[in-house]
């Protein structure tokens, strides 16, 4: 109440920001006559003038009014479309690194050109991110007319492009593409052996379209590049055969709210007996336990034709939020194999992760990030906490006149669908177009079958072909049109009303279920009422719907019984709609906690990956790695010498014979330290002597093949060693994360233990990489000069690019170019000297 009072008196924070931007919009409008007087040639020349001013350190903020006014005039001349004032506000929000929430049909695609043009003037590149290839290609071609008119180049990244085409697209001033392609290109670049094949430039500024879908809905699912791991699939089949004998509440418990299935003591005992093992929780049986848990999830939490379908003898994932088939995408950690065993199709071999990143961490690496969508306000706290992005709700150009009717709630699903079918038939008879939203493919197919029997012509969006989908959704506003769609199909395409439809009440949205997220429901509603058009929406629900059944259906059931609601009758009350929104809010909060928890774990892995990728990029881009290799040799020399001598022991008692053997073992040359009196009286002096001898021996080998070939060899060995050991480390970290939850039973904080043990494992990794590089370079046999082009990595293995389940790697760390000296405090914060802590 108090908050509402202050909002009425002082206005909301959103209102205050809009008021603050008003003078900027006025300044842009004042420049319009000046821009209209420019010739086409003068307008293109303005771009070069702006670039020069940026090069002379003028800020983009100062350039904004002129740049926006120029783009608006260019749009009028090329597309015949003039940016509205609300689009100018949205463009400013994007430039300032905010999320612009703009209702469907208000012109987000055109709005993005303002911020894209302004930020492209820096020459560092702008990425515009969309949800599918069709929209990326469409928007790039459409908006290219504006950019080309102003002498800027446009590129587009599509799924089937080769490396050279991608590199060319990234070289453009403004590059369009999907979130998947941008993320995979980042990972691919960090697996390459040739700097000339690197595709992506600096991650400067990104505008993410449908930002809620990409940064919220898909935040739990990492992009993974994997290669085949040789493992038997027999255990999946064996465990799967057991599951039908397991009973709910006796052998396992199911928490649908938390989406977890857990074995009981009885279930564990039954599993041990059937698998013939004494203790499933013995470390030796951890893989068997993992298979059993994944099989349990596959049988109890994943439903055919809702979470996945079986097509062409393959299990294909259905995207939870869009209803689209995610061909080529696989659940990780053996879950996909468990589903294949459940459905009796061929069980594919597991893949081993070679590189991975979440969208959360990829997009947080951009110097500046912004986004646009029709629905973001409900997730504003998460955008702020995870991405430091504020949401600005942009007013509509024309008042919103859509009527959102209260939900109709029935006792059973059958009653609900019967009532929904009746309304569809009534609206069709009247001529009013209707868009029917469903939460799963099987519901849309069942509705389609019923409508066919009733003789109602209609279209079904199967979300398989984005271009056809966009054409169907664009025609959904024509008279008599009936379109059945999963909730999110056709997103990014406007539904324009046909002739005579305005008089009939516009497009009607009929939702057959509420989604767990209010935002998805709002997106469905937002298909109607664009640009001041009339429209309406209503959701049909039943007490058997998952949302009501799991979150509060009993209370509503009691209300219906008390009111004496008969079969086929419904209740319609704002109290009920409010209760449903509260349930949705509860689920949204739960899902946010899951994403936040995963990110905390992922940040550990992400920091490690950042270090590895930085070293790898250094090895790839630097012309001469000899100084890096010599540093490794010096560090290794120091380790070797200090293993046999000490400043606390007299020089006469040093184990020089042992040191000679170790030098031979590590550096592959003989060094006589015992036949004459030792002239080096301190360990450091002796280490310097050994290093000088090792350096001389190394340079002798280098002279045999020539300096250029030696530099190529060093680069190849460094990259190959880093990649091999990093791949092994990823697998080890996966295993650590998989079992870390058990530490909670010992009253330990799993996250703290994961950080500590992960850090220790990473230190071991860095030491192994250095040791192996030195070992290979000193023991490699030089026979004759080898052309640099022959020093290529082994043939590329078959790689799988997947946007899989809930495991990933995470947040960027700040880069440092400072050289840490041996006796400096260690950067890890341990308090020890660098040489005694993390130097290796």
TrEMBL record:
Chief location of this protein within or outside the cell: membrane
Domain Helicase C-terminal: 404-588
InterPro entries documented for this protein: Helicase_ATP-bd, Helicase_C-like, P-loop_NTPase, SEC_C_motif, SecA, SecA_CS, SecA_DEAD, SecA_motor_DEAD
Domain (SecA family profile) ranges: 3-572
The name this protein goes by in its record: Protein translocase subunit SecA
Gene for this chain: secA
Organism this protein belongs to: Desulfotignum phosphitoxidans DSM 13687
MF term (GO), any: metal ion binding
Gene3D superfamilies, sorted: Helical scaffold and wing domains of SecA (1.10.3060.10), P-loop containing nucleotide triphosphate hydrolases (3.40.50.300), SecA, preprotein cross-linking domain (3.90.1440.10)
Region (Disordered): 793-832
SMART domains, alphabetized: SecA_DEAD, SecA_PP_bind
Residues annotated as domain Helicase ATP-binding: 89-247
């Amino acid at each position: 109440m108090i908050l509402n009072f202050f909002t009425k008196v002082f206005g909301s924070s959103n209102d205050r920001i809009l008021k603050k931007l008003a003078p900027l919009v006025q300044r842009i409008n004042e420049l319009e006559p000046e821009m209209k007087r420019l010739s086409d040639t003068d307008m293109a020349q303005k771009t070069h003038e702006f670039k020069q001013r940026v090069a002379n350190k003028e800020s983009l903020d100062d350039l904004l009014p002129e740049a926006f006014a120029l783009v608006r005039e260019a749009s009028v001349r090329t597309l015949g479309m003039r940016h509205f004032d609300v689009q100018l506000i949205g463009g400013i929000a994007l430039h300032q690194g905010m999320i612009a929430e703009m209702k469907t049909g208000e012109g987000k695609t055109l709005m993005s050109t303002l911020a894209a043009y302004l930020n492209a003037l820096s020459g560092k590149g702008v990425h515009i991110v969309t949800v599918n290839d069709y929209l990326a290609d469409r928007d790039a071609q459409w908006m290219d007319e504006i950019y080309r008119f102003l002498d800027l180049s446009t590129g587009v990244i599509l799924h089937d492009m080769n490396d050279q085409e991608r590199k060319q697209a990234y070289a453009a001033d403004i590059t369009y593409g999907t979130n998947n392609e941008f993320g995979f290109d980042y990972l691919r670049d960090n697996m390459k052996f040739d700097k000339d094949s690197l595709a992506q430039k600096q991650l400067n500024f990104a505008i993410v379209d449908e930002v809620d879908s990409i940064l919220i809905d898909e935040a739990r699912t990492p992009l993974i590049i994997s290669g085949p791991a040789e493992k038997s699939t027999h255990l999946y089949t064996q465990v799967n055969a057991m599951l039908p004998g397991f009973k709910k509440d006796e052998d396992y418990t199911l928490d649908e709210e938390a989406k977890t299935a857990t074995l009981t003591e009885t279930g564990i005992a039954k599993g041990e007996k059937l698998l013939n093992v004494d203790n499933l929780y013995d470390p030796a049986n951890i893989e068997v336990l993992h298979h059993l848990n994944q099989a349990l999830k596959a049988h109890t939490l994943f439903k055919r034709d809702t979470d996945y379908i079986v097509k062409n003898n393959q299990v294909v994932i259905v995207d939870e939020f869009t209803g689209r088939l995610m061909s080529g995408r696989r659940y990780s950690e053996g879950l996909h194999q468990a589903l294949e065993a459940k459905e009796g199709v061929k069980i594919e071999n597991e893949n081993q992760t070679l590189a991975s990143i979440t969208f959360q961490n990829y997009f947080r690496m951009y110097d500046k990030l912004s986004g646009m969508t029709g629905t973001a306000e409900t997730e504003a706290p998460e955008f702020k906490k995870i991405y430091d992005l504020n949401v600005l709700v942009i007013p509509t150009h024309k008042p919103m006149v859509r009527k959102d009717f209260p939900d109709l709630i029935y006792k059973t699903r059958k009653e609900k669908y019967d009532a929904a079918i009746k309304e569809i038939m009534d609206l069709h008879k009247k001529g009013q177009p209707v868009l029917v939203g469903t939460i799963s493919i099987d519901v849309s197919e069942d509705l389609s079958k019923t409508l066919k029997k009733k003789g109602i012509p209609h279209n079904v969006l199967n979300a398989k072909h984005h271009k056809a989908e966009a054409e169907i959704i664009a025609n959904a506003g024509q008279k008599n049109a009936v379109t059945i769609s999963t909730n999110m199909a056709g997103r990014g395409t406007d539904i324009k009303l046909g002739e005579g439809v305005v008089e009939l009440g516009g497009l009607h949205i009929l939702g057959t279920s509420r989604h767990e997220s209010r935002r998805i429901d709002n997106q469905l509603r937002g298909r109607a009422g664009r640009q001041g058009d009339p429209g309406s929406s209503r959701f049909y629900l039943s007490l058997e719907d998952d949302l009501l059944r799991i979150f509060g259906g009993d209370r509503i059931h009691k209300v219906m019984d008390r009111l004496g609601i008969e079969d086929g009758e419904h209740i319609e009350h704002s109290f009920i709609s409010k209760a449903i929104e509260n349930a949705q809010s509860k689920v949204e909060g739960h899902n946010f906690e899951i994403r936040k928890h995963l990110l905390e774990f992922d940040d550990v892995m992400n920091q490690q990956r950042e270090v590895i990728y930085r070293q790898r990029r250094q090895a790839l881009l630097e012309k001469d790695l000899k100084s890096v290799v010599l540093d490794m040799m010096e560090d290794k020399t120091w380790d070797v010498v200090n293993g046999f001598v000490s400043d606390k022991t007299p020089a006469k008692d040093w184990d020089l014979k042992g040191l000679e053997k170790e030098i031979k073992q590590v550096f592959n040359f003989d060094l006589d330290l015992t036949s004459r009196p030792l002239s080096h009286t301190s360990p450091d002096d002796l280490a310097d002597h050994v290093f000088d001898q090792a350096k001389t021996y190394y340079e002798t080998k280098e002279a045999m093949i020539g300096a250029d070939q030696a530099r190529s060899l060093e680069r190849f060995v460094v990259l190959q060693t880093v990649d091999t050991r990093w791949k092994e480390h990823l697998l080890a970290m996966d295993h650590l994360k998989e079992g870390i939850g058990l530490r909670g039973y010992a009253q330990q904080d799993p996250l703290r233990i994961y950080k500590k043990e992960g850090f220790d494992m990473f230190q071991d990794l860095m030491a192994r990489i250095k040791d192996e590089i030195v070992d290979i370079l000193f023991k490699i046999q030089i026979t004759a000069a080898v052309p640099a082009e022959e020093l290529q990595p082994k043939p590329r293995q078959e790689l799988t690019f997947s946007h899989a389940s809930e495991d990933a790697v995470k947040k960027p760390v700040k880069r440092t170019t400072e050289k840490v000296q041996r006796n400096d405090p260690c950067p890890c914060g341990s308090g020890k000297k660098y040489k005694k802590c993390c130097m290796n």
